[in-house]
Amino acid sequence: MAKSxxxxxxxxxxxxxxxxxxxxxxxxxxxxxxxxxxxIISTGGRTTEYTRDEIxxxxxxxxxxxxxxxxxxxPNKEEIVKVICEEKPAxxxxxxxxxxxxxxxxxxxxxxxIPVVPNVKLAKRVEKAGADxxxxxxxxxxxxxxxxxxxxxMTQVIPEVNFPVVMAGGFGDGRGxxxxxxxxxxGVQLGTRFLVAEECPVHANVKQKLIEAADTDTIVTGLTxxxxxxxxxxxxxxxxxxxxxxxxxxxxxxxxxMATGTNKLAAVDGDTENGMMQAGQSLLPLKKTEPxxxxxEALMREARETLAxxxxxxx
Amino acid sequence: MAKSxxxxxxxxxxxxxxxxxxxxxxxxxxxxxxxxxxxIISTGGRTTEYTRDEIxxxxxxxxxxxxxxxxxxxPNKEEIVKVICEEKPAxxxxxxxxxxxxxxxxxxxxxxxIPVVPNVKLAKRVEKAGADxxxxxxxxxxxxxxxxxxxxxMTQVIPEVNFPVVMAGGFGDGRGxxxxxxxxxxGVQLGTRFLVAEECPVHANVKQKLIEAADTDTIVTGLTxxxxxxxxxxxxxxxxxxxxxxxxxxxxxxxxxMATGTNKLAAVDGDTENGMMQAGQSLLPLKKTEPxxxxxEALMREARETLAxxxxxxx
Lengths: 315, 315
What we know:
Chain A is of the alpha/beta class. The first copy, chain A, has 2 domains: 213 residues, Aldolase class I (TIM Barrel); 64 residues, no CATH class. Chain A has 14 helices and 11 strands. In chain A, the strands form 2 sheets. In chain A, strands 1-9-8-6-5-4-3-2 form an 8-stranded parallel beta sheet. In chain A, strands 7-11-10 form a 3-stranded antiparallel beta sheet. In chain A, helix 2 runs parallel beside helix 3, helix 3 packs parallel to helix 4 and helix 8 crosses helix 14. The first copy, chain A, is globular.
């Protein structure tokens, strides 16, 4: 029997906070770890100095395990990995590129390695390469997405591997966490649900839009650009971008240039019209801003209550 | 407390067989009903005579409840509804249009009405209009699809309504059925999983391709054409079609003309290169052709075993 996620990471609850570029910093990640899950600092678009400072800052804010996300498309990924090996957070997640070459060096530094994978083939490949666990992310997630959904991935990936599988994408409440664990997941990663946490540094304008949003309020930009699909809230920017894509008259380079910087514009500057507010499909559970601890306790309470109802289902 | 799906329909197992145009006929639907679920005859692209004959034939093959699907984009939908009211199958499912005007007439004929809906707003609307249950279908399903996924829909729709919710999209095994029931669904609809049933009349060439297919082997055509998204197996036709869409030089009318007839070409004629093999994302559970009864019993056994494991999950 494979170890559980909570055993592998030494955490209380099987809940990770998904890394979010320009948003998930040391303060936010430490709050999630202090609440019993594991927070993750994002290094996408950041320098090695930022990475070192944030890991040190998180260590000053929590004595619990936390992680760092490495964006494998980043030009400075080698230098970021070097800093991480020196500063030694409990674990890393890695996505948007080939994680295999980084597994052994990070583990040699005492860091657990959890690649983010979008399908069965890559799940098997990183298991064989010795990864400690995987995050498997469905396309209902916010931000950069693949094509397979959470239910399709839970159905197909979990039976094919024998190490902890953390499911991500579309989870917003304890019922979903219970369902994932019942299907054999070892944990769940949530991003969007934590965006409205008081400790989350995303701009207040974005939090307000998320609280107001309905289930149908996300849109995917970049579907016509290979590998560039990003899910976020419908607004002036995202709807215009998709209209241009469907019209087919704007070349890919121009579209990529249009998208550059729009995540930061929303998340940091609070421009909810011209920025891209990255978010997943499960938006109705976001009803107010509240402390991370309250969100986490509500999630776990509901997950326990849901699992307790299994005995009453007669089929 | 709302009635359960099995109570509403008078069936043994909470499992519907999703309607599939040119595929799910009386023989196939009756086999699913005889196995304890409820089969559904597809009338998409069919005449009133076909509809009447197939309902009568299904009644000769099973004394169990079965359903008929009404494609609300069909030009002959009014006439099809009239025939259904006369022939009285146990229930109908209705999709691809506004089901509300048809609810009262069908119920007056003693037929249960189960609209297929893609989001919270429409789920609430058909509940208010008196529908007996709903099918809520995630975009991992095969054939015509919306944009929300099964996990996002289970998270957001189920808490908002108080009548039986049947989840569809991405289910391929008993683990998924157990997870849906645990989240509060009253049943599950499977399409792709039943395509490899011995009693399923889809062409043997298609069954073979489905058995060989991996999790990443579906593609969605028509994403750039409003309302025209269809999921099926990657092949010469579907990959060429999507390439033309992304290139943006072919107008929508020409694309729609290209797609017309391609479902039948695969399903009936067995052309797996130039036809569109409609199928959902959960393909790995399809390992061989086998009787519907064996598929159904395996699904239910695994669902029961999975639910029994809930008590061992400590969080």
